Automatic annotation (TrEMBL), chains A, B:
Transmembrane residue ranges: none
Ranges of residues in domain Prephenate dehydratase: 3-181
Keywords of this entry: Amino-acid biosynthesis, Aromatic amino acid biosynthesis, Lyase, Phenylalanine biosynthesis
Site feature location: Essential for prephenate dehydratase activity: 174
A Pfam entry, by short name: PDT
CDD domains the UniProt entry points to: ACT_CM-PDT, PBP2_Ct-PDT_like
Record's protein name: prephenate dehydratase
Annotated organism of origin: Bacteroides graminisolvens DSM 19988 = JCM 15093
Gene Ontology MF: a single term: prephenate dehydratase activity
Length: 281, 281
């Protein structure tokens, strides 16, 4: 039995991603109110694995989770890319004409902007969570209310789906990271031959060409960048922090490249080495 | 009289940033419900200038605004960095013991996480906007309710500030862009000698070293990167889009550098050339 900590409730996209990643395994979900609580759950019990959203094609990076990950010392052991498709759902005995308010997470609402623009008579109210909105409609028997949530959440909470696939962009996906306590990570990590991705964070002086040097070296070692994001460092105006994901074919070459860039960077930290994620896209 | 379109209401951080940037000028604010509406206002009346948040030190980039900017054809003509300090405010005849719910924008709530953790008895409810939360407490006379908003918003809506500076990190700032219709931008743009920053977006094939080449060239031309962010392009899995901000001392050198990287990139677009922003930090 896998213990998986997620932010959110049953039927949330975190729940779906956890079940997809650990397909065929029995899962015990630990539903947490915040991402801080998710990391706390992993720290408390090293058998607990966290599944957390890290970036979405529409909404961008969840910088807060990058930072929590860096501070926690926990390690990435895998990733999963989930195609996000939203449904519009209400109480089973209601229909379109009854709905005057829709509830969902701000990001989900943003992803359904075109749909919402076509229904200007429906008041849009933000809530904490997609699945929670569905659950509230069921438990509080909220008439006239719809939720934007996954089809799975609508079904779980006995709601009627009035429309599926209401997201504006059909290429909408979220990337989730599978994160474990460092001790547990050694046990769970993929075989070296399977590892072809790594996530790292480092600091560079804010001078001309410092990033260019680091990327040139990675390029010489045939390491491919799959993501880069700079962040100003709070309280240190002349240095920048970079979150970088790299992909590679040869694990040894990758290790050599990391050794080669280390003297040029400050505070280089590997957040995890893992196999490129399965995907539902 | 300057016409400035912002997302949000009077007393919002957008309002404060607009008044700081155009200090000493008379401003007519056009308060819009969404960022889409802000760009629509600029398109409709080329005398209208937009002020929009583009990144925050804690919450990260507002990717949606990057994308709206790219699609709109509008041009960046300036920037402003505003130190974000939140207040905790309620109806004037209430006090700490009365408060059982706090309302604010999700990002503001996130920025006050430590404060909220110290007051676990107060229920946290997300709303659309910081200033709007203050306004609602006033207009609906909401007892037991507090807003997290700017001190200016609390004062504007006649609320009592129970605590100032409740943000967890005192280096919390938001960078705002000043954006104009392309025709208007020519008129408003700074003198060439003052321009020392530019924002651009381009596409690169997802191959080893493609970004490294571009950054090497920028480095040869003494162009300094102040921000870089990669975005997967929806529906084109093998290409990445990069949003890059650069700083430079010599405008001609910068122009030459752009010419030099153009053949290596696809769809390179300059979003604006401007003077480094004034700042309240």
């Amino acid at each position: 039995m896998r213990k998986i900590a997620i932010q959110g409730t049953l039927g949330s996209y975190h729940d779906i991603a956890a079940h997809k990643y650990f397909e065929g395994e029995e899962i015990q979900l630990i539903c947490c109110a915040t991402f801080e609580d998710v990391f706390a759950a992993v720290k408390k019990d090293s058998d607990t694995i966290a599944m957390l959203a890290i970036e979405n094609t529409i909404a961008g990076s969840l910088l807060q989770n990058n930072e929590l990950l860096r501070q926690s010392g926990a390690r990435i052991i895998g990733e999963y890319k989930l195609r996000i498709s939203h449904s519009f759902a209400c109480l089973p005995d209601e229909d379109w004409a009854d709905i005057n308010e829709v509830n969902s997470h701000p990001i989900a609402l943003m992803q359904c902007r075109d749909f919402l623009n076509h229904h200007p008579q429906i008041k849009v109210v933000e809530t904490e969570d997609t699945a929670l909105s569905a659950e509230m409609i069921q438990t509080q028997n909220l008439k006239g209310r719809a939720a934007i949530c996954s089809k799975a959440a609508a079904e779980r909470y006995g709601l009627k789906v009035l429309q599926e696939g209401i997201e504006t962009n059909k290429h909408n996906f979220t990337r989730f990271l599978v994160v474990a306590d460092p001790w547990k990570a050694d046990e769970l990590q993929q075989q070296q031959a399977e590892i072809n991705k790594a996530s790292m964070v480092f600091t560079l002086p804010h001078t001309e060409g410092s990033l260019s040097q680091v990327l040139s070296i990675l390029s010489f070692y045939n390491i491919n960048l799959t993501k880069i994001q700079s962040l100003p460092i709070i309280g240190r105006e002349w240095e920048y922090q970079f979150y970088v994901d790299v992909a590679f074919g040869d694990y040894l070459r990758y290790k050599q490249a990391v050794a080669a860039i280390t003297p040029l960077t400050k505070e280089l930290k590997t957040l995890g080495e893992y196999a490129e994620g399965k995907s539902s896209i």
